[in-house]
Amino acid sequence: MKIDVIIPTLRPGKEFAELLQSLESQTQAVHKIVVMNTRAGAFPQELVRVYNNVEVFHLKQSEFDHGRTRNVGVSHTEAEYLLFLTQDALPADRYLVERLVAAFENPRVKAAYARQLPREDCRELERYTRSFNYPKESRVKTKEDLKSLGIKTFFCSNVCAMYERETFLRQGGFVNHTIFNEDMIYAGGLIKSGYGIAYVAEAKVIHSHNYSGRKQFQRNFDLAVSQADHPEIFAGVASEEEGIRLVKKTAAHCLKIGKPWLIFSLVFFSGCKYIGYRLGKNYRKLPKWLIQRCTMNRGYWKQQ
User: What is this structure's pTM?
Assistant: First the structure.
């Protein structure tokens, strides 16, 4: 069994060095680590010189795409299983790879993603969101879950996700040109093809962000654009109900821990997310100058 790792990077630093060290110590060895780096001049070559199995490929920022760049990374691999990571996702222990690949013992499973744990500096609201999106219980999701889970059925994160190569290639890989959300677009295709996606709670990475309201707005704008661009995956699948459920659960959590004042922040951040999402869903009606203000990925629109 071979497992290759694909990691897109942009100005990698200390966290990336820790990630490489952690991959080196996994109980299930990885065969090759392919780094798809944007901006060659900003890449610290000394980080990878000590590893014989790391290959670095450079591209211009104008060439980067969330889907295509990862697909090119796959073309440099040969393993049966493909593990995608982001440069700031740190395995929580030595068993990450072993536990992810074990999910494929279920013949229906063609993708598996890890649980994301918050960093030490993670804010309380984001900490709870992590526990909501990445619970302690593992499960396999199939199209039979669409009625009960809605959009959550397609949830899969390339922060740390593994795919079976043969099925990945047969399904066409990630969509080559997408603003964001290439993982859920691919996962939705898997589900609709009758395959299963495993959420492996025992496989853990440390990863979280303390986004500002503006960043939350922009992130949800791009998320909605990706959904609007792919009705073959997302049309008719309940989406906004999951966001409402998260807000209600988070408000209850704030009261439970004796911090009701956090509800004011919850309302603010939730409003930023919702407005960004609604604008993204209707981006075709917006002028180009406004789209550039709303997006996190301005390069995507230049490629359009």
Answer: 0.94
